[in-house]
Design goal:
With 217 residues, the chain is mostly helical. The protein has a two-stranded antiparallel sheet.
């Protein structure tokens, strides 16, 4: 019984978080429990646990006497998230390149291949698979750092990446060939164990993504 409840809770958490990130639940909107119960087919206790968890991660605001709201967005918050991502992800990448073994290399090659194929399709005008694109993008960035040797670092990065992704989805545009080339360069530098080039390219990649998002915000 407990295991089944945990599975339902995890599913509800993933679905609500996904809808916040992809904008189906708009910034600032009130999360009414009755409406959520109908939408996600979850119990009140599961919904409260889920919303409190999302509040602890910064995706939901829990306001005394007023209830739950989707966290608002701002240019300042986006800048802070991007800067923190540079600090965490570039550090994790350096550690990962030092520690990575053959399995890490194989996973990285596979992740880049899937992302590159998706990006080639988008460069040709196919923007029908946005969620697949962002999933492959996440898998590539995760593959870069997964050998860092720190679960705490990976967990913090995952939350931060999702916050960054939320802003990207609000102003959804693709930077085109420039972003594709940055992915290729950091990928090749990582495989070559060129730590400085990989980290410097990743920093530029995140900062240019920030500039692009701010311009469209």
């Amino acid at each position: 019984m407990t295991q089944s409840r945990n599975i339902v809770g995890a599913s509800t958490y993933q679905r609500i978080k996904r809808d916040i990130i992809y904008g189906d639940l708009q910034p600032g909107s009130k999360l009414k429990l009755d409406g959520l119960r109908e939408r996600y087919h979850a119990s009140m206790s599961t919904l409260r646990e889920t919303l409190n968890r999302l509040a602890s991660e910064g995706f939901v605001d829990a306001l005394d006497q007023r209830g739950f709201f989707v966290t608002q967005v701002s240019r300042e918050d986006l800048i802070e998230i991007a800067n923190l991502r540079v600090l965490l992800e570039c550090h994790a990448l350096r550690l990962s390149i030092r520690n990575g073994d053959t399995d890490w290399e194989g996973n990285l090659v596979a992740a880049h291949h899937k992302l590159h194929l998706m990006e080639q399709g988008m460069l040709k005008g196919d923007d029908s698979k946005v969620e697949d694109w962002k999933r492959y993008d996440w898998e590539f960035h995760q593959a870069l750092i997964e050998a860092c040797g720190s679960q705490n670092l990976l967990s913090l990065h995952a939350v931060l990446y999702d916050k960054y992704l939320r802003y990207q989805m609000l102003v959804l545009t693709h930077r085109g060939e420039e972003a594709v080339e940055e992915h290729r360069k950091v990928f090749e530098a990582a495989l070559a164990r060129d730590i400085d080039t990989a980290a410097d390219t990743l920093k530029v990649h995140i900062e240019k993504g920030l500039e692009h998002s701010l311009a469209a915000f």
